[in-house]
Amino acid sequence: MTYDRSKTIGRVAFLAHCDVIRDLLEKGHRNKEVFAELEAKLTISYSQFNRYVLRYITGEQNNGHQRKRTAQISPPTPYPAPTPAPSGEARNSDAQVFKTGQKRAQFKHDPNSGNTRDDLI
Predict the structure, then answer these.
(1) What are the DSSP calls for 19-57, one per residue?
(2) 3-state helix vs strand vs coil in the chain, percent to 5
(3) Which of 38, 57, 97, 104 has its CA 20 to 30 A from that of 114?
């Protein structure tokens, strides 16, 4: 597979100056200062420079906000789990079966609840 030269030339330039960049960073220079000094030689953007510093110099994994999730975590449901119908009985697929004496939680709004506090607005 051949690569477009324009896509790899920035990485090659960065790797060619990797020792200089590492030395400057170890001396305490900020990334922005190092990039400003080598910008003409690198021909890459500042954000790409930072990605290369993470990948090739510090060795840290970039666990940024755009990573893909491996598993979706679902929040717990407020209702109890439905109990299965005893064998031999037909069960309505639309209705959930709850234990005896349990009701579904419901919200009822009462606009005339008597709350006259003005600081809630």
Answers:
(1) HHHHHHHHTT--HHHHHHHHHHHH-S-HHHHHHHIIIII
(2) 40, 0, 60
(3) 104
Q: Using alpha carbons, list the distances in angstroms from residue 4 to 12, 34, 36, 84.
A: 13, 27, 26, 61
pLDDT tens digits along 31-46:
999 999 999 898 899 9
Q: Can you give the residue ranges of every domain in the chain?
A: 5-58
In the numeric block, which tokens belong to residue 71?
Answer: 């598993």
Check: pTM over 0.85? Answer yes or no. Answer: no
Q: Minimal CA–CA distance to 18: which of 49, 61, 40?
A: 49
Using an 8 Å Cβ cutoff, are 37 and 73 in contact? Answer: no
- For residues 78 and 105, give the distance between their C-alpha atoms in angstroms, rounded to a whole number: 8
Whether 109 and 94 have beta carbons less than 8 Å apart is answered as no
Q: How far is CA 24 from the centre of its chain?
A: 31
CA–CA dist 42, 13 (Å, integer) = 5
